[in-house]
Specification:
The protein has about 325 residues and is an alpha/beta fold. The chain has a single domain, classed as TIM Barrel. Helix content is about 35%, strand content about 15%. It is built from 11 helices and 10 strands. Strands 9-8-7-6-5-4-3-10 form an 8-stranded parallel sheet, covered by helices on one side. The longest helix is centred in the last third of the chain and has 17 residues. The chain is globular, with a radius of gyration of 19 Å. About 0% of the residues have low confidence.
């Protein structure tokens, strides 16, 4: 297993990070929600993965609970990342967002579900421009000073929002973000315009989500993307469309010529882009997990990289993954 520094913290994390968003969602034939997730989690530990990512909003806490069982007895060896921001109640209007109230309550709840005394990396899941960043950062700083959180991060922020947070923390003399968790894949390279250069300049860790573009970049949905894709007919962003399918077909030809699968090409590309710490992978089987881990260790040659750039130019967007509340009048969170 390859380990990389989590930005300027010096903490060593595995490449890749295992995302647990699917843990506990699908019960088996007896109604148990955990066996598959526990098996995948155990396999990840055996492979040397020490970096796990989750969020309170995933299955409204169930994913954190299942992850807590996976890490039991191994907690001190691992780097656990969780997130807050998402809506946790259908009736309480304060049970979401980046306010001090919600952050403090959400962290306490996550600690209980995970069965741990501290969270290594606590991230704000999405920006919320109507909440002053100093309120969010002061609440997070208190959690660090209380020993409940060790490091802080953000997810799917705009470049200007990351820069604002960085300098507000410095101005206040408090703990600030050390990482960004953005969407980044061969169908959306818009991260390269501002955020990725910012993170490289200030030595922030970058932990990309959806490196396989929701499964599109595995190539398995090429024959019938509308029906077989996990997005299906309920894709509000129209991410599975004629243009994206055409691009994936062209990328597949590059993968074939390099003797790689689409999954290998796509994960290897993300994992080894300058400034990337570790992509977040998901797995629905142990075999899939092993393949994804191995793919992240592959180094693509210069010729293959040049071919990829001709199909999907740097900074280009084929489908819009990189969307959030980037301003007070921006579109709602996704």
């Amino acid at each position: 297993m390859e380990f990389r520094s989590l930005g300027r913290t010096g903490v060593q994390v595995s490449n890749p990070c295992l995302g647990t968003m699917t843990f506990g969602w699908e019960p088996d034939e007896w109604g148990n929600e955990e066996p598959e997730a526990l098996e995948i989690g155990a396999a990840a530990l055996d492979l040397g993965i020490n970096f796990f990512d989750t969020a309170d909003v995933y299955a409204r806490g169930l994913c954190e609970t299942v992850l807590g069982k996976v890490i039991k007895g191994r907690r001190d060896e691992l780097v656990i990342a969780s997130k807050c921001h998402g809506k946790m109640s259908d009736t309480d209007p304060n049970a979401w967002g980046n306010s001090r109230r919600h952050i403090m309550e959400a962290c306490e709840a996550s600690l209980k579900r995970l069965g741990t005394d501290y969270i290594d990396l606590y991230q704000i899941h999405r920006p919320q421009p109507e909440i002053p960043i100093d309120e969010t950062l002061r609440a997070l700083d208190d959690l660090v000073r209380q020993g409940k959180v060790r490091y802080l991060g953000c997810s799917t922020y705009a470049g200007w929002q990351a820069a604002e947070a960085h300098y507000v923390a410095k101005m206040l003399g408090i703990n600030g973000f050390v990482s960004e968790q953005p969407p980044y894949n061969l169908l959306d390279r818009s991260l390269e315009r501002e955020m990725l250069p910012f993170c490289r300049t200030y030595d922030w860790a970058v932990i990309p989500w959806s490196p396989l573009a929701g499964g599109q970049l595995t190539g398995k949905y090429l024959d019938d993307p509308g029906k077989r894709s996990r997005y299906g007919n309920s894709d509000p962003m129209n991410r599975v469309n004629k243009e994206s399918t055409t691009v994936v077909k062209r990328l597949k030809r590059i993968a074939d010529s390099a003797g790689l699968s689409m999954t290998e090409l796509s994960l290897a590309w993300v994992a080894n882009q300058p400034g990337i710490t570790a992509p977040i992978i998901g797995a629905r089987s142990i075999e899939q997990l092993k393949q994804s881990v191995a793919a992240c260790q592959i180094k693509l040659d210069k010729k293959t990289l040049e071919k990829i750039d001709k199909v999907v130019a740097p900074e280009s967007t084929i489908v819009p993954y990189y969307n959030a509340r980037f301003g007070p009048n921006a579109r709602p969170n996704v």
